[in-house]
Predict the 3D structure of the following.
Amino acid sequence: MAIHLPKQFVQIPRVRLLYPDPSPIHPLPALTTSLNSNSNSNTTESTPRPHISLYTKREDHSSPLACAGNKYRKLEYIIPDILNPTATTTTTSNNSNNIPFTSAAGGPTAPGKVTTLVTEGAVQSNHTIQVASVARKLGLESVAILHKGSGGGLASAADKDAFLRVGNVQIAKLLGTEVRMLEKKRPSQEQREQQQQFFDPVAEVMEELAARGKVPYWIPSGASLHPLGGLGYARCAFEIAAQEQSESHQLPGTGRFDYIFVACGSGSTVGGLIAGFKLLEKQQPSNKFPPRKVIGIINSPTKPLSWHQDRVLRFARTAGRMIGLDPENDITMADVILDNRYAGTAYGVLDAQTKETLEMVARQESVVLDPVYTAKVVRGMVEGWVRQGELGRDWASRVEGLYRHQANVLFVHTGGQSALGAYAVVE
Ligand SMILES: *Cc1c(COP(=O)(O)O)cnc(C)c1O
């Protein structure tokens, strides 16, 4: 399938980690049926609800590498920088942007050929697994700094010893990454910026590796603060647009995915998608249909909504600038639609309703969600946007004529099932 990227975008270096074919998109027929029958039974509403067709894009089937998920797409654009011996101490591979890497780095980086990828995450982090497998692919070592102190489900786990050993921790070790469990909470980026002397466990690891003659390369949590972190999902928007055209789907209504639901954790997945779809709309404006809407479902209640909105806007603009958009004018806060109502009680904690969603989707569709991100996304999409009629009202306010009766919704499955083993309450 041909993906038509604009010239400036195609020129950005990328090392493929995904399968040559796009990750599959398929309908969710049972969920579609139950959603539409529930919503139609409510006859008291003045706005007629559209028929909603639900599909999913399987980013968990995107790559042959271990535990495929959304981080591989981001890492495809970071690898050229890893392989560039001067990049970590100078600028991005796209020099015109002049974004110094040191601003994204957690500590000092040494010049020279990179030997070791270093990253961090919660105990059951999916991101660190994907970094560990990329390291293996590149013949490098890797260190995964896992934070016991930042929640991530450990405190509420029924079997804490197992939580620290199974699921993604087991796979990280299997991939040969060096796992460092940290007890102490890492100071936030804001704290680190304000207070230079703050104890920073990441800087400590970087220094220790450098002292041993290694050349560490720092990849921030979720790869989002990395200046190249948003490009993968900007490209994914073009992939989705190409898949809309493919004959196998025959999408009803507009023939497009009118709404795209995705998790918002560290934020560059949703940010990249926003940038990519903006560029698509700018290239091929439609006077028949409203623009596709990307909706990010936040999975952690720790930070206020505005914190996420600011970051996602920044990530969308950073990617947007590189792919040929005018970032300040083309992408605004109005494009950043994030929903924090389904974040639950804590990051990585499976609340009762999210657990119900996970079990329901498994039984209805034989599709397994993950307990930290995608189950919250589906819950937010179903409860918040479809059942309560928000999506229908939004669609009716933006579209004319026959198109009003049908809306196509794409849920982006970002992976993460490898953490399920640590969540033994799901059964
Ligand atoms: C990291 C991750 C996300 C969140 O993506 P961000 O780009 O960090 O917002 C969603 N789902 C899964 C399974 C992940 O591992």
